[in-house]
Amino acid sequence: MARPQSMMFTLFGDYIMHRGGEIWVGSLITIAGQFGLSQQAVRSALSRMTQKGWLNVRRMGNHPYYGATGRTTHLLEEGKRRIFDRRSGPWDHRWRILVYSIPERMRDIRTTLRKQLAWLGYAPASSGSWVCPHDVEDDLRGVVSSLGIGRHVETFCATHDGFTSDRELAARCWDLQSINRRYGTFLAKYRPLYESFLRREDVTDSECFVQRFLLIHEYRKFFFIDPELPEELLPSVWHGAEARELFQTFHLLLAERANRYFDSVFEAPPARRDRTGARPHAREAVAAAAAHRV
């Protein structure tokens, strides 16, 4: 089961950001109840996320409404791209190489750089040298600039003329076998569920919401570990494309009824209700939904 903070990121990314970006805490408590989370767990997670700058809170009377900060919005937009929009176009067979020499006194910045490089699709070829098959120069410049390490970093673009193939180089830099096994596990779990939902006629809106949430939460983990390598660099048997197709198909199957459930318990701040399409008596709907949890 998702942790409360992770759940909030998924809810904001897939639902709340499309409905004005703010939500009443009571709606979040009711939704979390579908997953067995207590009111205290939700409030604690919201408090921590607000303190860390992930969320803003706006009080209207006794009713707090939570919204995403710019930092969270950027993260969610990038996450959406990684989930729904694959890198496309033919590979130019060129490798982007980054070499850094960062002093030990800046090891925290060095650690942050490594995380950001992995996010962009880089992997270490050796100590202090990272490679990437994607043209991510603009994003990389942003990372280097934000960390203030321009004088500690050099970048190159080159073809691979070594004693192994490009595919063998990729297999050495990334743990593709492990990623492929995780895709296989995803398929083994969600293909039967998808087929079951296709056959069943007794599926409720709340069940669709819960299943869609779990599907998204599970699949989104891949954009932290899958570098989206060109086909030429992948193993001959690769489950990533099949997993993506299953995710998108199942996601679409659940979408209408999942959104219907969410809208039944969603309450935006009063000034935004007309624009978001939220029900005018959403607080009453929340109470009713809480009494009939699945």
Task: List key phrases describing it.
globular, four-stranded antiparallel beta sheet, 294 residues, disordered C terminus, Alpha-Beta Plaits, 56% helix, Arc Repressor Mutant, subunit A, alpha+beta
Helix-strand sequence = HEHHEEHEHEEHEHHHHHHH
Rg calc: 22 Å
CATH topology label of the largest domain: Arc Repressor Mutant, subunit A
Count of domain modules: 3
Shape: globular
Number of strands: 7
Lateral arrangement of strands in the main beta sheet: 5-6-4-7
Low-confidence stretches: 275-294
Main pleated sheet: 4 strands, antiparallel
Distance between the terminal alpha carbons, to the nearest Å?
A: 16 Å
CATH class category name of the largest domain: Mainly Alpha
CATH architectural category of the largest domain = Orthogonal Bundle
Mean pLDDT: 88
* Fraction in helix: 55-70%
Q: In a few lines, what is going on in this structure?
A:
With 294 residues, the protein is an alpha+beta fold. The chain has 13 helices and seven strands. It has helices at 4-14, 25-33, 39-51, 70-84, 107-120, 137-147, 166-173, 176-199, 205-219, 222-225, 240-265, 273-276, 282-291; strands at residues 22-24, 55-60, 63-68, 95-100, 123-126, 129-132, 153-158.
